[in-house]
Amino acid sequence: MSFLIEDRYFSPDHAQSAIARRLYQRVKDLPLVCPHGHVDPRLLAASNYDWGTPVDLLIIPDHYVFRMLYSQGISLEELGIPRKDGGPVEKDHRKIWQIVCDHWYLFRGTPSSLWLRDELRDIFGIDAKINSANAQAIYNAIDEKLHSPEFQPRQLFERFQIEVLATTDAATATLQEHQRIRESGWKGRIVPTFRPDAVVNIAMGGFAENIQLLSQVSGVDVTNYRTYIAALEQRRHFFKEMGATATDHAAVTAYTARLSEREADAIFQRALCGEASAEDAQRFTGHILIEMARMSVEDGLVMQLHVGSSRDHNPVLLERFGRDMGADIPTASEFTHNLKPLLDLYGRERDLTIILFNLDETVYSRELAPLAGHYPALRLGPPWWFFDSWNGIQRYFENVVETAGIYNTAGFNDDTRAYPSIPARHDLWRRASADWLAGLAVRGIVDEDDAAEMVVDMAYRLAKQTYKLEA
Amino acid sequence: MSFLIEDRYFSPDHAQSAIARRLYQRVKDLPLVCPHGHVDPRLLAASNYDWGTPVDLLIIPDHYVFRMLYSQGISLEELGIPRKDGGPVEKDHRKIWQIVCDHWYLFRGTPSSLWLRDELRDIFGIDAKINSANAQAIYNAIDEKLHSPEFQPRQLFERFQIEVLATTDAATATLQEHQRIRESGWKGRIVPTFRPDAVVNIAMGGFAENIQLLSQVSGVDVTNYRTYIAALEQRRHFFKEMGATATDHAAVTAYTARLSEREADAIFQRALCGEASAEDAQRFTGHILIEMARMSVEDGLVMQLHVGSSRDHNPVLLERFGRDMGADIPTASEFTHNLKPLLDLYGRERDLTIILFNLDETVYSRELAPLAGHYPALRLGPPWWFFDSWNGIQRYFENVVETAGIYNTAGFNDDTRAYPSIPARHDLWRRASADWLAGLAVRGIVDEDDAAEMVVDMAYRLAKQTYKLEA
Amino acid sequence: MSFLIEDRYFSPDHAQSAIARRLYQRVKDLPLVCPHGHVDPRLLAASNYDWGTPVDLLIIPDHYVFRMLYSQGISLEELGIPRKDGGPVEKDHRKIWQIVCDHWYLFRGTPSSLWLRDELRDIFGIDAKINSANAQAIYNAIDEKLHSPEFQPRQLFERFQIEVLATTDAATATLQEHQRIRESGWKGRIVPTFRPDAVVNIAMGGFAENIQLLSQVSGVDVTNYRTYIAALEQRRHFFKEMGATATDHAAVTAYTARLSEREADAIFQRALCGEASAEDAQRFTGHILIEMARMSVEDGLVMQLHVGSSRDHNPVLLERFGRDMGADIPTASEFTHNLKPLLDLYGRERDLTIILFNLDETVYSRELAPLAGHYPALRLGPPWWFFDSWNGIQRYFENVVETAGIYNTAGFNDDTRAYPSIPARHDLWRRASADWLAGLAVRGIVDEDDAAEMVVDMAYRLAKQTYKLEA
């Protein structure tokens, strides 16, 4: 008998779990809609992709995993994370895997343990609980599968029943991999997403270089604010031609404010010279978010806004290993006042869609649900990052739905760079949705007919519709 | 069989729901105490009230309902909401009703759907689930009942078993309707509530006109801060004579601060000339809240404080349709520091009762429960506005009771202008209380004898006692 | 039949409670590790301790209890709380006890009622529900037991199976009681904890006097910042010799910032003259916290940080009765930015342990779990003060574990000055842990084998290991 139970995650109550099971049956085999994530398009552009070792696949790219080991005193060098200076790190991936398995108990009760458990069983056919003793056997089993033809990314794409997968791409990206996928004749739908952070956030290093790159790829000679805007519009146009239906914007806060063109240009010029202040950076980002909403009204691209992460909190790790090392820490967020300047201008637009993501759960019921339950342009993204977990999802439903309903949400997105974990993440969401709806049904808050429609909306339709992926 | 279940909302666990059912039996037929709400006293003053159409009754006055439709791209004009400029809006109420029913799925899982379901069944005898097909039939059924004698507001008052109903009235109100109700010989107890916001909040439009009105109705020539205070005291005295037991105060924050009479007068004079600043407004409100507490110590009126709504967030709607259009968005609140100046002076008064309401649930466990669990003058109002819902009520109980107990709460109030929804709102609270207490009992945290007393306290006694309605 | 049920607090679901019961069996009789609390060491130093009356034992020292009665209009004088000016307070402890019992219904649903219920039954053998009628009988029963030899603190220590108990002691304490315990030959392990607040917080009254005392006890003539640091180091060394494994620091916020030695000395000198500003106080505390982390790296003492209480909110009570009168009210906290200067320097230290406690539950999932799930030096303390309750513990587990795991927590500590309530507090935590783990097991999130290890970790091992009490 498997240690996994078929009804995993469902309420222990028989009446509720019976309904949850029926609801889940309706959605468990639906195609996966993946409108936001960080899968590398090279996986799907390659005709023969080399996954490397199990550690290359499952540990080194997954900051959820290595930050937990780091928190317990294991260095990133011991885990084989490459250093920026090329300094020595562990190269023996079997040894790294053993360390991970020796410490796998650290993940008890965390979503990482659930995703990997499902992934091993469903993708790799390994129905065993990770421990020190079986570490090498599991390594061998993964390694063998990884090099079989059925584990090529396109084969997995079809096996996973992915209907559409959006990547996330710099504004200056040439989207060559997307072009190669198109030209390959393969039918999988891979669309890019326009993410202009590096040419908007003037406080990040290398702004002038990024603008130079923007000039090159756009064909617009960017020398001032006006040409900068023209170049951004050109890139959006290009992304849209390449299949994009959405943009994505990260910001520490949801601050928005309209600048005059003169002010915007003055900040832009200071930024090019590396003389912009922290206040300049906040004001410029706040202004460009409004401009991006304006462009979205014009070109129809859905606008995503990810707010609230204080990135690279650990300066030594940043210097030694770079960004995305598990040291991004959330901060308190505010939307009611911060987003008002943008909403004053574009919140009433029926054809505009702005999807809000954040890392401060206190704003779910206080600000986000009331805003999304009022403004036609707003939708709420699914629980993000740390909160894409069983309890995180429960809190989201409990705090959002009574005020905003489910139809002001954007359904689910997996937001992952860990390609083979995609089915496990959707399955957790689908089970959580089914169980939560069963909880409503068993209390008579909705009837099972409604729940049966809602579960399909939550698992499939809302994401597709909100991201305009129906075409 | 009805699609409604008799045990609706209760836990699916048999042991818990059995207790919940027993507890609910104790309170389901108790009279309704309605110490705070927004029912128009004209309903009860009229000998023959005209409800208008089902849309006049259920849609146009209910911003909970039309804001959700608005959030999904339906304009307020399409829903028949009157424009301030008298511009064209939909007049065909059958057509509006059809739009509402076509989109009723939006309300799945929201309290609006639960209240209306109960209301249709229990008040109108319509035991059907709203959909596009039955929209006109339901319209007809409501319409017919609305024009029958048993649907006159006073008949409903008696049918609902309302023991006392408080209205909310401007400080400058003459309370003519209350006078007419008294003189009519009808025995229903309707009491006014003194709400001086329009003569306190100097940032609201029309302050000078409101002060002029205050002079007229009070008979005090209000020319400076001292006469202003005298006029307010006169009005409180008048309200109390007319049966009021409470005042009500809305503020964006809980900020309080004592001004000298000279400062208060200087701000008052600037406000009369329309020259007051935003800081003036905050300081003046903060000072008057303290003055109102002082007056409550003297005259015994219970003081309600509603904090945290950023009103009229959508400026175009405000301009076109006015206030209360579903565009009020909560903001973060702070009480520990903000309320200290008031509490330093009056928090220890045993005969003073200040009831706190707010829209930032994070302060429940962090600030409100510890404050109410310490200061004799403080009580916590029930979950307000967006949080008067199944999950909102659970969060309130879970976050408040362990620190403050139930006896530092003010029981329930329905806070509604939707008169026929009053029984449904009390029923939701009573069921939620019974189920939550059953959850304590089944875990052995309280025994069922205690729970049986507590459920009556929560459903009935605490509201009556806290609002001094026992007389 | 007792009104207490053996499975109290467990889920009513049979599958879950069956697992909870099995898990609880594994931990219910484990020794108690008490690494943080406020028991007076004189209890255990005395060869014949006089407990006084039941009111001396259970009411007068327990601000959880008397603040609730105060909130309902009972004065502290009526409850026998001694006034600073020696003014008249109730001396008849039977009368006080009657008042408490007459109002015991106020505690329904609060942890105080659960702790006392267990304490009466398990420690005093009184298996009755407190009410007005049995008040005097219960008083008599407690009183009789209190004066029996088996109720001497050391006998209780052994009966409670306390493995180690940490007291909390001023930096200037001579630890005479600890010395007497050592010299007595008694085997109970009592360790001091270094709490330097009174010589660090320059805004508290009496700073200069406290520094003078520091000079005396340390033997270092403290005249400037450098000698001040030397004296603190001397005291830490002394505490460590006396068995201490930890320090403890209270602060209103988690603010940290590095000062130059010149700045630190300038503030120190102003503080000695009573001329320090509020900003000085914040900066000095923020700097000393960093210094304390530096010292902990050097001497290995575990560093506890308790953040977020606005102490002595009610100035009249402070003046009349002193500190710790149930008028400490939480405030919002921020760690992501505030703690960064300290973490930049010492967060990566593997051998440093900093345990964070706070009173703003919103930071659990937003800041604390992500920080503890990253930095090797950080661990999260158990839910503190108001949140050491059934729902408080649930919220802690639900918000912390998915991100930080349980192995970045510090297990449990009872944090109490109410010595005989220690077993009840540990039992509540152990039951809550067992039930929560059973909830994970019944949903298939962890298996029962893992849960069986986790429950022991949570009830016993994590506290012992985190506080370095294994020696």
TrEMBL record, chains A, B, C:
Q: What is its EC number?
A: 5.3.1.12
For molecular function, the Gene Ontology terms on record are:
glucuronate isomerase activity
List the catalytic activities from the record: D-glucuronate = D-fructuronate
Q: Name one GO biological process term.
A: D-galacturonate catabolic process
| Pathway the protein contributes to | Carbohydrate metabolism; pentose and glucuronate interconversion
Task: Read off the SUPFAM superfamilies from this record.
Answer: Metallo-dependent hydrolases
Record keywords, A-Z: Isomerase
Q: Which InterPro entries match?
A: Metal_Hydrolase, Uronate_isomerase
Q: Does the keyword Signal apply?
A: no
Q: What class of enzyme is it?
A: isomerase
Query: What Gene3D superfamilies does the database record attribute to this sequence?
Result: Metal-dependent hydrolases, uronate isomerase, domain 2, chain A
Q: Which Pfam families match?
A: UxaC
Per the similarity annotation, which family is this?
A: Belongs to the metallo-dependent hydrolases superfamily. Uronate isomerase family.
Q: Know the name of this protein? A: Uronate isomerase
Task: Tell me what organism the protein belongs to.
Answer: Reticulibacter mediterranei
